[in-house]
Amino acid sequence: MAPRNFIILAIIAVVILVMLFTGAFSDFQSLKLWVGALLTLMIFSFLYKDNPFYKFAEHLFVGVSAAYWMTKGIQTTLWPNCLRPVLLDWFQGGAASASADHLPFGVLPYGIARVIPAVFGLILLTRLIGPIGWFSRWAMAFIIGYAAGTNFTRYLQSDFVGQIYNTLLPVVDGPGAFGVFIAYAVIAAALILAYRFLIAGLQRGAGAVTTRSIFWIATVVFVLLFATKFPNLTVVTGVICGLIYFFFSVEHKGLFGWTSRIGIYMLMLAFGATFGYTVMARISLLIGRMSDLGVWLGKVF
Amino acid sequence: MCSLFYWVRMFALRFTRLSMPKACVAFCLVLSAFSGSPAEPIIGGQEGAGVRALLPPEDVQAMDTPRDGGLSLTIRWQRPTGEEEGFSGYRIYRSDSAGGEFRLVGEVDRNTTEYQNIPNDSIKVRMGKEYYYKVAAYDSLGEAMSEAVGPVKSRPTWFDIHRLPILVAIVLFFGSVLVFFRITKRGRGLFIRRIAGIAAMEEAVGRATELGRPILYVPGIMDVDNIQTIASMVILVDVAKLAAQYDVPIIVPLNRAFVVPMAEESVRQGFLNAGRPDSYDPDNVRYLSDEQFAFTAGVNGIMVREKTAAHFFLGAFFAESLILSEMGFSTGAIQIAGTANIHQLPFFVVACDYTLIGEEFYAATAYISKDPQLLGPLKGADFMKVVIMALLVGGSLLELFGVHWLTGLLTLS
Amino acid sequence: MKRQIPLLITFFFGIFMIIQYFIPHHGVNEWGGRFQGWTIIVLAFAYVLGVANVLRISLEKVYRKEADWPFKLVTCISLALMMVIGLVEGVGENTFFVRRLYNQLYVPMGATMYSTLAFFIASAAYRAFRIRTWHAALLAITAMLVMIGRIPIGQGIWSGFPRLSDWIMFEGPNMVGQRAILIGAALGAISTGLKMVFGIERSYLGSGD
How many structural domains compose chain B? Predict the structure, then answer.
């Protein structure tokens, strides 16, 4: 027997012995705890390397979950909403005469309307029959048409008009802020000119590095102060620069390139914020799983 | 008075056989019943607070609910003048006729002065039928009812005027797309700037070919009713065509059952477009599970065991994006990701060689094919961006000067 | 016909759903709701295709005794058993299907996979903080500021960190960046929808054969 297979069998034997010794098979709660813990450890083992235990757990998970969703889909959606009403209609006098009521505008009787999704579903299943499998495109076309039409207006409302509406902000708060804005604009112009005529042309050397560092630190501080002093203007400008980044019709060069670069910097700031925010949530998931393992370990030892 | 006494005595002796005192009382009661005296306010009030009159709501109006489906009516009223907090709330009654029986339709608290009789109510509104409404202020001891208002009937609205901005946006967009179609038909090329992630797709497929290992294409974890999945299926055709041209297997694991036939069609079409239909292997389009993390476990297994050399994560992703991209990175594969799910982009940016952000992902198919018909909508989108930027600049300036016309127009409710 | 009819179907339902958005008439909305119900049912039919795909590929690998074929057998057996039990017994809260199979197999494995995110995010964070470009620097610095602002030690270092973290997340760069992406993605989604409804993009339907 190959050494690898021997190790695997040995691990399985040890686990079974420990389970027997700790009375895992004595009551259902203990067995439940052991099964959950073993499956957890099998999945975690993948973090080290792919191994037969992980493969077992993965394939078990795929099989169980695929069956779960199919069974749930049939029991909670297909049967009560489609198959059962259609069969009842059929056995109670036929679909066409099952209901005298029509859908609005008198186009279709309710009985026929109940049959149509079943027909589409059966058309979809022709996929399994090679020669007539192309019929399934009709069912696909229905879903895609519905999805495309629904998403079209949904995105227009919430992500297009809604976002534009939220960005329509008074760029400066009140007449008193105009003076402060002018002052900031003068400083910004000075920084731009300093970069254009001083910083950009600096030769390499310790002095150049120091000068550049001071300049960029000053720029960052200025930008932060500006953003906190004129938040609305920052939002409007940032969104416009972001949209310019997504502009495909013009090469990103010159002034257009600069604004596009500001846009991608804004996006990177957003990504960093999302990243940092998500780290905390992910750590808490691990804490939850570890506490379950701790309960199991407590039982074993 | 003497004649009155006479008539009371006659009434008592002739009709009631009551004694005189009792007859007087009876006579007074009968008289008061037909006196037609004005209705006194119903006596009510908080317990222990003394008896005081409850007043009915004022200025009750009933009207058709605007911009609805035709099955709803709105009733408005004013709080009774001088009425402070001495009552519990309002009850709304409805009848089919002014003098008919009024049935309770709903109840609201005392701070509310509007009620909508909607299809979800137990007493529904029928379109085109006339109704009368009354509103009563009530407390634990009684009600003060208003006069009946009506008749009012519901009518459906055929166009929601508040959604006009959306219609204008659609017309603008369609118009711009048609203009660009005409431009391309005249033979003028349309410039699209280079998008690094899309340009790298062929490089990724080529690298997989050099290593002799397959490509992995994951079209997201949402169903086909998500527009990102549909876009991913379209890109899959082009990636499959590249894979066929380079003679490298393409594995497509799927998280949703309905995407299976679409993915099969897309991959088969890609191989057909490359002129290699016989190379198409249907076993490489694999449904794993609808469960997000079972799917992720399965894809991890494919990456590690089948040693895929190029990974394409293009579609709608959620928490599993981190696991897939990190796992893929650890195998040393070249990775190209694209999604419009903002919260997953940082993980793709960190772990993948190229990331298509939002609209770049949707632009991929037009960019790869350079088909003029596909470039038209892309150019139309750029035109809309110009419109948006103009709106933002103009609208912000208007807001600065206190003119809220544009924000009012864009309010959709 | 093999392509024309699907394109007509896509066009009809797509245009109806767009037009339905503008018409509050209850009859039109009822039709829209009915179409939504139809899509849910048709999507449920697709589960049969999915499970058929899993079984076909797995059983083929078992039959040909390809690599890892015993694990494919595990998939097939677990799928078949679970399906039979669920279809016969039902999927109620107190059934064996839910109490034993779902709660004791499905749930622990799903929770474990979810928790592996913590390990992967550690490796992602390590890579994110290897600052090599301006983009990486901005991402790393912002992530650090947000993280520090959300833990007690951050407030101990400087009382302004939580406020700065909140500003970054909810009022500042995060909101701006997300808004730009959302607007761009909306335009992309709209143009994709347009292409689908009007049949400009039809490759997903396959060729005419």
Answer: 2
Give the residue numbers spanning the domain of B140: 50-152
Asked whether residue B348 falls in the same domain as residue B241, the answer is: yes
B362 in the same domain as B237 = yes
* CATH number of B72's domain: 2.60.40.10
- Do B226 and B366 sit in the same domain of this protein? yes
Comparing C-alpha atoms, which of A181, A235, A170 is closest to residue B396?
Answer: A170
Contact A285, C117 (CB under 8 A): yes
A262 Cβ partners below 8 Å, 6+ apart? A238, A241
Based on the domain organization, do B214 and B145 belong to the same domain? Answer: no
Nearest residue to A120 (alpha-carbon basis) of C6, C38, B230, C160 = C38
Subunit contact C21:B163, Cβ cutoff 8 A:
yes
Pick from B345, B392, B399, B413 the residue to mutate for testing the A interface (most A CBs within 10 Å): B392
Q: How many domains does chain C have?
A: 1
The secondary structure of A69-109, three-state, reads: HHHHHHHHHHHHHHHHHHHHHHHCCCHHHHCCCECHHHCCE
Q: For chain C, how many helices (H) and strands (E)?
A: 10, 0
Residue to mutate among A248, A250, A260, A286, with most B CBs inside 10 A, is A248
Q: Is there a single domain that holds both residue B145 and residue B57?
A: yes
Q: What are the pLDDT digits (tens) for B205-217?
A: 999 999 999 999 9
CB B208 within 8 A of CB B309: yes
Q: Is residue C160 part of a domain?
A: no
| Predicted local distance difference test score (pLDDT) of residue B41 | 38
Tell me what pLDDT residue B40 has.
37
Q: Which domain holds residue C38?
A: 1-89
CB contact under 8 Å between A155 and C80, yes or no, is no
Gap between the Cα atoms of C149 and B165, Å rounded: 40
All residues of chain B having their beta carbon less than 8 Å from the beta carbon of residue A74 are: none
Torsion, Cα B376 B380 B382 B388, to 10 degrees, reads 180
Residue B382 lies in a domain: no
CATH at residue B342:
3.40.50
Please give the span between the terminal C-alpha atoms of chain C, in angstroms, as a whole number: 10
C182 φ/ψ angles, rounded to the nearest 5 degrees: -60, -45
Say if B363 falls within a structural domain. yes
What b/e readout covers B194-205, taking b as 16+ CB neighbours within 10 angstroms? ebebbebbeebb
Answer whether residue B397 is part of any domain.
Answer: no
**Max Cα distance, chain A (Å):** 95
Within-domain flag for C178: no
Q: Is residue B162 a part of any domain in this protein?
A: no
pLDDT tens string C89-131: 888 888 888 888 888 888 888 888 888 888 888 888 888 777 7
- Give the neighbours of chain C: at least 3 Cβ pairs within 8 Å: A, B
The angle at the Cα of C84, spanning C82 to C88, to the nearest 5 degrees, equals 120
Q: ipTM of the predicted structure?
A: 0.91
Question: In DSSP terms, which residues pair with B91 in a beta bridge?
Answer: B107, B136
d(CA B157, CA C24): 6
CA distances from B159 to A151, A158, B141 (A): 20, 19, 46
Are B312 and B204 within 8 A, CB to CB? yes
> Angle C117-128/B320-330 helices, nearest 10 degrees?
60
Give the per-residue pLDDT at B116.
92
CB–CB contact C175 A235 (8 Å)? yes
CB contacts under 8 A, A 130-159 vs B, are 136-137, 140, 143-144, 146-148, 150-151, 153, 155-157
Instruction: Give me the mean pLDDT over the A207-236 stretch.
Output: 85
